[in-house]
Automatic annotation (TrEMBL):
<dbReference type="InterPro" id="IPR036995">
    <property type="entry name" value="MPG_sf"/>
</dbReference>
<keyword id="KW-0227">DNA damage</keyword>
<dbReference type="GO" id="GO:0006284">
    <property type="term" value="P:base-excision repair"/>
</dbReference>
<keyword id="KW-0378">Hydrolase</keyword>
<dbReference type="InterPro" id="IPR003180">
    <property type="entry name" value="MPG"/>
</dbReference>
<dbReference type="Pfam" id="PF02245">
    <property type="entry name" value="Pur_DNA_glyco"/>
</dbReference>
<keyword id="KW-0234">DNA repair</keyword>
<comment type="similarity">
    <text>Belongs to the DNA glycosylase MPG family.</text>
</comment>
<dbReference type="InterPro" id="IPR011034">
    <property type="entry name" value="Formyl_transferase-like_C_sf"/>
</dbReference>
<dbReference type="GO" id="GO:0003905">
    <property type="term" value="F:alkylbase DNA N-glycosylase activity"/>
</dbReference>
<protein>
    <recommendedName>
        <fullName>Putative 3-methyladenine DNA glycosylase</fullName>
        <ecNumber>3.2.2.-</ecNumber>
    </recommendedName>
</protein>
<dbReference type="GO" id="GO:0003677">
    <property type="term" value="F:DNA binding"/>
</dbReference>
Length: 199
DNA sequence: CACAGGATCGTT
DNA sequence: ACGATCCTGTGT
């Protein structure tokens, strides 16, 4: 059975992080039998962004952020959740896009099993839920989305309109970074975490 | 080596 | 509003 959409080439990721973030909406995330369509993302800048994991420079955990765009950066949070990011830009820019919400496309039976049969948008709205549904864990950090066979990004169907707002859970950042409107979601979709604060 | 805290989630 | 739960970065 062919994959839904063609594999996205490496050049896609070599643009400013907010541009790639918007362009990721509507693309397909694929792993094994599961395909998810991206509906909500957040952009994180390099060392100068006080909300980003890159703010402390290169560490063992965030090393994939310093790779060339197209790399996966996965980290473990709050002792129980995995967070999936798409690294962007040339090497050493350390920018990444957090995948916050998706809608199901294929492999729904497996997604429902992994998500304990939660009903409605609560199934996939939130970064921890997306990673759990896809089956992504730390073993995937450092892998490349444009190389076939593993965690892949494919064409999908683009978002017609996009809403933006401040990022979630970054109250610790400086005011300028806290207020930067770098959360993006497809307009009108129910597959979004915290629909408030978007316009 | 010890410790404080986190780009969250689900329940109370 | 809060507890779960453990990896991570930082400091001693």
């Amino acid at each position: 059975m062919p994959r839904p959409g063609s594999l996205i080439p490496a050049a896609f990721y070599l643009r400013p992080v907010d541009v790639v973030a918007r362009d990721l909406l509507g693309r397909h995330l694929c792993l094994g039998p599961v395909t998810l369509r991206i509906t909500e993302v957040e952009a994180y800048g390099g060392p100068q962004d006080s909300a980003s994991h890159a703010r402390s420079g290169r560490t063992p955990r965030n090393a994939p952020m310093w790779e060339a765009g197209g790399c996966a950066y996965v980290y473990f949070c709050y002792g129980m959740h995995h967070m999936l990011n798409v690294v962007t830009g040339p090497p050493d820019r350390a920018e990444a896009v957090l995948i916050r919400s998706c809608e199901p496309v294929t492999g729904l039976d497996l997604v429902l099993e992994r998500r304990r049969h939660v009903q409605g948008p609560a199934l996939l709205t939130g970064p921890g839920k997306v990673a759990q549904a896809l089956g992504v864990d730390l073993a995937f950090t450092g892998t490349r989305f444009h190389e076939p066979g593993g965690l892949e990004l494919r064409a999908g169907s683009p978002a017609a309109a996009i809403l933006a707002g401040p990022r979630v859970g970054v109250d610790f950042a400086s005011p300028a970074d806290r207020d930067r409107p770098w959360r993006f979601a497809e307009a009108g979709t129910p597959w979004v975490s915290r629909p408030r604060n978007l316009r």
